[in-house]
Amino acid sequence: MPEMRAVAVTCDMVSAYGSGVDACWRGLQSGHSAIRRFERFSMTSMSTQKAAFVPGLNPDGDETLVMQMLRPLVQRNASLIPADSFLVLATTNGEIDILERAVLEGTPPADGSRPERLLRKVELLCGLTHPGMVICAACASSSAAVAQGAAMIRDGERDCVLVVACDNVSEFVAAGFSSLMALDEDMARPFDKNRRGLSLGEAAAYMLLMSEQRASRERRPVLAEISGWGLTGDANHITGPARDGSGLAAAVRQALQSAGLPGERVGSISAHGTGTVYNDSMEMRAFKSVFEGRSLPTYSLKGAIGHTMGTAGLVDIIVALRGLAERVVPPTVNLRDVDNEARGWASPEARSCDSDVALSTNSGFGGINCAVVLRRWDPD
Amino acid sequence: MRCGVEKMGSRLTLPGMSVITGIGWITGTEYGCVMKKVRQPYADVGSLRSSLERESVFSYPAKRFGKYDLASQLTCGVAALALYDAGVSYSEDRRQDIGILGTSSDGCLQSNVDFFRDFVANGRTRGRAGLFVYTLPSIPIAEAAIYLKLQGPLLYLGFSREQISSLLTRADKIITRGESPAMLAVKASEEDALCFVVRREGDVSTQTALRLETLLDIAQQTSAVDEMVLALFGHVTW
């Protein structure tokens, strides 16, 4: 059977910049960070008082915080989502507020927080007729979900995959990252010489993937092709990346091979860029190892909208698709003094870029690495 | 239903279909391997570790084993058993292109509860990093990958039903796409664990192996580890 091309036909998101891809794009272009003083719960004992949060979420509401993000997102796009889509849900903690309440108040039962329960809720919310799948790959969850969805289409297993991702800022996660001393007291500064850690963020997003044939049959406008992907493990350390970047470099090479493209075709990189000393350094080593002799416009969203955990990969990919369409590489918000390792690569300014190929990378706890190659759509 | 464990190359197999070359399992009271017909009792996780080290299933000391949460201990043990069953060696100084997929009935629920309860008990002022690191469903397979030095694709996949057959199918797809020559597929919880070594059919022409489609038939009847182990022991012939 000939390989099917997997294309993205629609997407949407909600982030700390507000509702919609346009809001996020405008926020990035403004250069102003959405990380600010956080008041949904007390962070006085945490190593920061700031996070990037979605306005208007109610911690005492009838629904969990991720469902409060997902419901309006899905409802305004409901007519675009076919009922026979195969759902791939990406999250790290899902409805963690259920567990928090279970521990604090004794009710509801904590097992309501299991990701498979959220999977069922999202299936019902989207009106889907088939059971789907949850992917938890730490902070690479949603890029891995896009990769798996595109792979199912390329194989001919499915012709329509709905990738949904969500995670919220919670006391659970804030306490956890504080315990790891991984948070910047102020705001994350990816690739900055003086970076000191990450900032937490929250977001929900979806992307609908189709085979080229189905997209054409349904006359769907195509945003881009998901051309290739690579997934590796560092086999090194449970929280720290392999310092030499070899695991991520291998994922990038696999993604390029999967896309059938040489490295010279890549015009920009959406990096994971958490703002931690080790992650950003590791990524630069990986990129330099793959793209020897070149400097590529590279950016991270995490100084702008924080680290949205399981949603990070999908948000990165959605913004990268907008960048391909606009021929603009977004700025790295909050970058002030570029680290020597990233000089010539990362910038606090937006840059123009005519290349039709972008790379998006994410890495996560356990040494997971995911790289996805995106290509501006060319029907030929 | 009987499923034949056969010498590959002796009969026609479906093109593109993977095969299972090793199966490790751990229940609340026993552990073992299917192909090597191993079945041993154990009293607790400490004695399980000692046995695995004594029998060289752990081929070098698992120094961090005592720090793992229980799900990670069982995952690491069952993955090592599966590799042992498949005759695949590993060492501390050599990474291999084998990936690992994991699934579970409860994600990392108990580890999540343990971390947050501890945080609350500390007056909601301080969480413990050693507990927080286990609050992702993907961590047990990551711990196994770190110990066994497996550098292939690493994903936790959750399904509302047919967990084992769904997981094996995903492993097969990764292999047949050429993204990894071999995968471990693990279902593990704090109670029990089951792990399959899934390989490209063409790589095992002289090795005893189980056809994936046969295993999928069994897995579609049950996702319970103890029932699957009984089915495999009861039906595998030589």
Characterise this structure.
The complex is a heterodimer of chains A (380) and B (238). The longest helix of chain A is centred in the C-terminal third of the chain and has 15 residues, at 312-326. The two termini of chain A are 19 Å apart. Helices cover 32% and strands 21% of the residues of chain A. In chain A, helix 5 packs across helix 11 and helix 8 (246-259) packs across helix 9 (277-290). With 380 residues, chain A is an alpha/beta fold. In chain A, a hairpin with a 2-residue loop joins strand 1 (6-15) and strand 2. In chain A, strands 1, 2, 5, 6, 7, 8, 9, 10, 11, 14 and 15 form an 11-stranded mixed sheet that branches. In chain A, strands 3-4 form a two-stranded antiparallel sheet. Chain A has a two-stranded antiparallel sheet with strand order 12-13. Chain A is globular. The mean pLDDT of chain A is 97. Chain A is built from 11 helices and 15 strands. The longest helix of chain B has 17 residues, at 70-86. The two termini of chain B are 15 Å apart. In chain B, a hairpin with a 4-residue loop joins strand 3 and strand 4 (38-41). Chain B has helices at residues 45-54, 70-86, 109-121, 129-132, 139-148, 163-176, 212-219, 225-235, and strands spanning 3-7, 19-26, 30-33, 38-41, 98-103, 154-158, 182-188, 193-199, 208-211, 236-237. Chain B has 238 residues and is of the alpha/beta class. In chain B, strands 1, 2, 3, 4, 5, 6, 7, 8, 9 and 10 form a 10-stranded mixed sheet that branches. Chain B has one domain (5-233): Peroxisomal Thiolase, Chain A, domain 1. Chains A and B meet through helix 3, helix 4, strand 6, helix 5 and helix 6 of A and helix 3, helix 5, strand 6 and helix 6 of B.
Layout of secondary structure:
The complex is a heterodimer of chains A (380) and B (238).
Chain A: E1 6-15, E2 18-19, H1 21-30, E3 36-37, E4 50-51, H2 65-77, E5 86-90, H3 96-105, H4 115-125, E6 133-136, H5 141-154, E7 160-167, H6 171-179, E8 203-211, H7 212-217, E9 224-233, H8 246-259, E10 268-270, H9 277-290, E11 298-299, H10 302-305, H11 312-326, E12 328-329, E13 351-352, E14 357-364, E15 368-376
Parallel strand pairs in A: 5-6, 5-7, 10-11, 10-14
Antiparallel strand pairs in A: 1-2, 1-8, 1-9, 3-4, 7-8, 9-15, 12-13, 14-15
Helix pairs in contact in A: 5-11, 8-9
Chain B: E1 3-7, E2 19-26, E3 30-33, E4 38-41, H1 45-54, H2 70-86, E5 98-103, H3 109-121, H4 129-132, H5 139-148, E6 154-158, H6 163-176, E7 182-188, E8 193-199, E9 208-211, H7 212-219, H8 225-235, E10 236-237
